Amino acid sequence: MTYLREVWYLQCKAGCPAQIPLPNQNPPRKPSFQKYWPMGNGPLILQCHVCGRLSDYSVKDGHPISEPWVPLDQRPYVFQKLTISCGHKNCGTRVVIHMQTERDIPDLDVMKRGLLSRPMPTFSCGHVLTEICGMRVEKIEDESED
């Protein structure tokens, strides 16, 4: 018997056919589904895993789909959050890029993908992205299953 799970997807806005799944953020064994969405009112900036383009998404851009359940440790991908901090003294501005990557990818490669994305990430403060900008990678695991 095949078990199905509900997954929320975002369709790439750059014209490629990629669908990017969002992790479920409910604790295990809870009946309701809550897709991952960052706190705050801003958009989710997502890098497509197929074409590498950055696009802004709002909650209304997502759509649910049922797919066969696969244990977490057997899924080939993981959702990542790359936070880039402005390198200018006392600025504190950040840009956050989300992406789907291979499960075992090193943090350095996640950082490179974010920096090489197009259009290039920009800070709202107007400062330019440079090699002195701080970066942090965080895996966003699907919390609904064990």
Model description:
The protein is mainly β. The chain has one domain. The protein is built from one helix and eight strands; from the N terminus they run βββββββαβ. The strands form two sheets. It has a five-stranded mixed beta sheet with strand order 4-3-7-6-8, with helices on one face. It has a three-stranded antiparallel beta sheet with strand order 2-1-5, with no helix packed on it. The protein is globular, with a radius of gyration of 16 Å.
Shape: globular
What is the number of domains?
A: 1
Helical residues, percent: under 10%
Question: Secondary-structure element order, as H and E?
Answer: EEEEEEEHE
> What class do helices, strands and sheet pairing give?
mainly beta
Strand arrangement in the largest pleated sheet = 4-3-7-6-8
- The total of helices stands at 1
Q: Measure the end-to-end span.
A: 19 Å
Mean pLDDT comes to 83
- Biggest sheet architecture: 5 strands, mixed
Based on DSSP secondary structure assignment, what is the total number of beta strands?
Answer: 8
Q: Flag low-confidence runs.
A: 27-33
